Amino acid sequence: MSATLIDGKAVAEQIREEIKSRVAQLRTQGVVPGLGVILVGEDPASVSYVTAKEKACEEAGIASFEHRLPADISLESLLGYVRAFNEDPRVHGILVQLPLPRHIDEKAVIAAIAPEKDVDGFTPVNVGRMLLEEPCFLPCTPNGVLELIKRTGVKTDGAHVVIVGRSNIVGKPLANLFIRKSINSTVTLCHTGTHDLASYCKRADILVACAGKPRLITADMIKEGACVIDVGVNRVADPTAKKGYRLVGDVDFSGALEVAGFLTPVPGGVGPMTITMLLQNTVESASRA
To answer: Which member of 118, 120, 205, 252 is catalytic?
Structure first.
C-alpha cells in the first residue's frame, strides 16, 4: 500500500478563499482587518516566516503593520511596541515572531499582548479559555492540524491519538483540543522522557509528530493505515541541494509512505495551514471588534 498524501497547500488555499470573502464583506462595512507584526533580530527562519505571513495578508486583503527591531532591543522598549499595537484600532491581531533573543523574557512579552488581539492563542488568558472550552483564539498550528484532519475526512471520534512532543505551541494545546467532546479522541502524549516510544506510536490511529527531531518516527513505529501528521520542519545538510541543506520532517517520509493510510509531506503539509489559521483568527478578531 501507499499512503494518501494530505495536501496542506490545497486545503489552505480553499480556506484562504473563504477568508477572502469574509474580508471583502467586512470591507463593505468599513472594517479593514489588520495584523501587527513584531520581528526582533535577523533570524533567517523568522524573517522568512514573517515575509510569508505578510504576503498571505496582502493576498487576503488584510492590512499588515510591521516593526522590524534590532536584536539588542531592551525588554521595556519591546513592550512599548506591543502596547502601541494593543491601543491601535487599526490592528486587530498581534503577532510577535518567536523565538526572541535570549535576553528578552518571552513570557513577559506574550503576557503583554491584549487577549482580544492574541491571534496566536499564546497568552495565559487564551490558553486558560481554551482549556475551559470558552470562546478564544486557538493556537494556529494545532488548529491547522485539526482542520487538515477534518477536511481529509479522517475519523476522530473514539480514535486513539498519539502526540510526540510536549511544547506549549503544539503538543500541549493539541492534546487538549483532541479530547474536546466535539472531537472525542483518546490522547497519549509522549516526549523525550517516554520509554519505548515505538510501542505507543504503534497503537495510534492518528499519530502527530511535533518533537523537532529529524526522522524520529520510522516506518516500524507506525500502525498500518494510520493517519500520520508531521509537524516537524528540520534542516539537514545535503551537499546535492542548491542551498546545501534540505527540509525534512520528524517522520521518515519514504518509510511512512509504505505503511500509513494518510500522510502529510514536509514541506507542503502542516506549514501552509499555520499561516492560514493566523489569517482566520485576525479576520475573526476584526469581525468581533
So the answer is: 120
pTM for the model? 0.93
- Co-location of 177 and 254 in the same domain: yes
> Does the annotation mark 120 as catalytic?
yes
3-state helix, strand and coil shares in percent for the chain, rounded to the nearest 5? 40, 15, 40
- Above 70 in pLDDT, residue 232? yes
Q: Determine whether 97 is an active site residue.
A: yes
Q: Which of 53, 118, 250, 280 is catalytic?
A: 53
Q: Active site residue: 97, 205, 223, 230, which one? A: 97
For residue 247, give Cα distances in angstroms to 12, 165, 193, 212, 268.
20, 19, 26, 12, 11
Domain count along the chain = 2
Say how far apart CA 75 and CA 102 lie, in whole Å: 11
Q: What is the pLDDT of residue 45?
A: 82
Same domain, residue pair 156 and 109: no
**pLDDT tens digits for range 67-104:** 999 999 999 999 999 999 999 999 999 999 999 999 99
Per-residue confidence at 1, pLDDT binned at 50, 70, 90? low
Last residue of a domain, one of 81, 116, 151: 116
